[in-house]
Design a protein that fits this description.
Layout: E1 20-25, H1 34-48, E2 52-57, H2 62-65, H3 67-81, E3 85-88, H4 96-110, E4 113-118, H5 123-126, H6 129-138, E5 144-148, H7 150-158, E6 167-170, H8 188-196, E7 200-208, E8 210-211, E9 214-215, H9 219-229, E10 237-245, H10 248-260, E11 267-271, H11 277-280, E12 285-288, H12 297-305, E13 309-312, E14 322-324, H13 329-348
Parallel strand pairs: 1-2, 1-3, 3-4, 4-5, 5-6, 7-10, 7-12, 10-11, 12-13, 13-14
Antiparallel strand pairs: 8-9
Helix pairs in contact: 3-4, 4-6, 9-13
């Protein structure tokens, strides 16, 4: 992999017009996870540019149960669409090299362009050498390689993955263009909460889930930080946007912890399918205390809107993001306080 690439804003969908496009990737949102948000917004952009866009769900259940039949479904989908361009978004899935090999074989007969878009900065380092060797053998037959985020690019370098004839490192964020029908409105209680709390901190949690027995998205960290900030910012509020709850027992623990800390009136929990950007427009800071991360759409989205971000230092972050030592509540609280005070001064000016 080339060692001198620098990250750029999203561009791989620019200038693509009047084509038949097959996008192979996750289900369309909801739920609004980072990859599916990117996938949906790119699809919307392609359609606005006059393209006909088709979708193949690479996470279909039968992929994991009857893989040969899944490959037949892929081949049928490609033949039925007969696309000009295929964008393949899920190299991180099991046996993705076999699926990619099929797409390359069909490319020889159908003549389409093939682009891989990789969002995952961790999967290559977990893969066996056999997979990495297989991927390197296939890359010369890929027309374009898009790596989402600096961390993904770094993982390709660390894993000694070759570069395709055209390669770019791009941000995940694409300005939102969802249909209003797909968005659940924010609950009425949020407006009342916002009116009585300032500054307002937002924490987005796509899934309430554990990583090695710990809260992956750091909702617990958000509560601890708010608890420490209350002395300096007595009217501060924390909005936790929780998409799906994979750990209902842990969710009940968090609710009881809110009561234990005396934060019942300072925390607004919003559950379910919601887009983040309408909330970011009404907040003062995005807190992202994740235990591991990659190309964060929410991080880029906040900067696009003009909202500061404080995030854990578990990966390469946006150059405008303020980072803190992962696992340190004190350092996180210190950085959040500093950013909020800086923002207050800017508003006063």
């Amino acid at each position: 992999m080339k060692k001198d690439l620098s990250i750029q804003n999203h561009s791989y969908s620019d200038g693509i017009v009047n084509k038949k496009i097959l996008m192979c990737g996750p289900p369309m949102p909801p739920p609004y996870g980072g990859i599916s948000v990117h996938f949906q917004t790119v699809k919307d952009k392609f359609e606005r540019q006059g393209n006909r866009v088709f979708h193949h769900n690479t996470l279909a259940t039968y992929r994991y149960r009857w893989y040969p039949f899944y490959l037949l479904a892929v081949a049928y989908r490609v033949l039925s669409v007969c696309p000009d361009i295929i964008y393949y978004h899920t190299l991180s899935l099991p046996k993705s090299d076999t699926e990619l090999k099929l797409l390359i074989m069909m490319k020889r007969f159908l003549g389409y362009m093939l682009t891989t878009v990789d969002h995952d900065c961790l999967h290559l380092l977990k893969r066996p050498v056999r997979f990495r060797n297989s991927l390197n053998r296939l890359i010369p037959f890929i027309d374009q390689q898009v790596l989402i985020g600096d961390s993904t690019y770094q993982s390709y370098c660390d894993a000694a993955i070759d570069a395709a004839p055209a390669v770019s490192v791009e941000r995940a964020f694409v300005p939102a263009s969802y249909a209003a029908a797909t968005v659940a409105p924010l609950p009425d209680r949020f407006a009342a909460f916002r009116a009585t709390h300032s500054p307002l901190i937002t924490l987005a949690c796509t899934r309430l889930v554990f990583l090695d027995g710990r809260d992956l998205y750091g909702v617990d960290t958000g509560l601890e930080v708010l608890r420490k900030l209350r002395a300096e910012f007595p009217n501060a509020g924390l909005v936790c946007l929780v998409g799906t709850i994979d750990e209902p027992g842990y969710y009940r623990v968090l609710l009881s912890r809110i009561v234990e800390y005396g934060l019942q009136d300072a925390v607004c929990m919003i559950n379910g399918v919601h887009q983040l950007w309408p909330l970011l427009q009404k907040t003062d800071l995005l807190l992202r205390p994740t235990l591991c991360d990659g190309a964060s759409v929410s991080e880029d989205e906040a900067h696009h809107i003009g909202i500061p971000v404080v995030a854990s230092d578990v990966c390469l972050r946006h150059n405008r993001t303020t980072t803190y030592r992962s696992g340190s509540i004190d350092d996180c609280s210190k950085q959040v306080s500093r950013v909020l005070n800086d923002r207050k001064k800017q508003v006063e000016l």
